[in-house]
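At this stage, I put together a protein sequence along with its fold in token form, as given directly below:
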Amino acid sequence: MNDPAAELRVLEEEAHRAMGAGALDSALAAFERLARSDAGNPQRWVTVALVQQRRGDAAGEEAALQRALTADPYDLMALLMRARLCEGQQHRHEATRAYGAALTVAPPRQRLPRELQAALAHAERYREAYERDLGAFMDQSLEGALLDHSGEDLDRFRLSLDILLGRKRRYDSLPMRYFVPNLLPVEFFDRGLFPWLDEVEAATDRIRGEFLAVLADDSDFVPYIQYAEGEPVAQWAELNHSPRWSVYHLWKDGAAVPGHVARCPETARVLEATPRPDQPGRTPVALFSVLKPRTRIPPHVGASNARLICHLPLIVPEGCRYRVGNSHRLWVPGKAWVFDDTIEHEAVNDSDQIRVVLIWDTWHPALTPAERRLITAMNAALNRFAGADPEFTA
């Protein structure tokens, strides 16, 4: 009785012997028979493609790679080989798409052999060069049209073009806990929406004075990042329990810190006059944030887009900068801003001095009074269900 598995093993041995001897036509015939007998295995067709590559038959290589990708459209080797084939044929658009697909499906580089790591590095360089050339072409092509509208606000269109061309990323609201749909993800808000910022800014010197007074006795400053042992710290490993980013809480988890508020009466008075979010167990919050020299707060997102974050810079040496999404800004002492912290953001202090910002939160201005009251009621109900566990609130 015939043994199909044994016959395939013999055929595979013959194919490899022929390949080793340089008998490429015989090797091709054998490998094609093996591939047809196991048509759902993409690696069989990749092997056929490699033989065709050795034979210099580009059409045959393309056909074998197509069979491999039909069997598995995510096969990394087949995608890289197809990209390389298209690159060699000067089919730049097709090569870029294939390299992009390979980069998308590739596992972490450290898990791959060196040859594949090198191939993926080449894929990145090839795609980057393509995107640079495309960007230059589009900039030149649109130069006249942009000049025709030079007096108009074109920031949104320019950002859309940069995202299309891969020069910038798309950033959306990605809150860790509670998400209100249909609120536009705005990085930095128009300050005209918050007329009460004028009064906050007018009190900058008095607020800074209160900060300096509590800084003189810094026993109540605590690390902002405080993960318990055994919790995953992700990007926070360097700052976990570190005084390099420390804070002095005025309001924490929706409640005033009595001794701290009493020591900063002017700061408390100014903040209490702002529309502060009421999410029991969560907000309002307010704190002095101290970032020590040569310290970076890594990219992260906040808890909820129902509220926004306000900054009043108090002490800002040169070398400090801030990013929210695609928007990069420099703090200016006494000049406040409001942003959506559910959009990825990060902070850097590259100076030799501390950077100090007063941080507090406010309702998102697009929320209606009814929505605000219901969000408050929702958090109160969640607290009752969870026994007032602050980690359970929205």
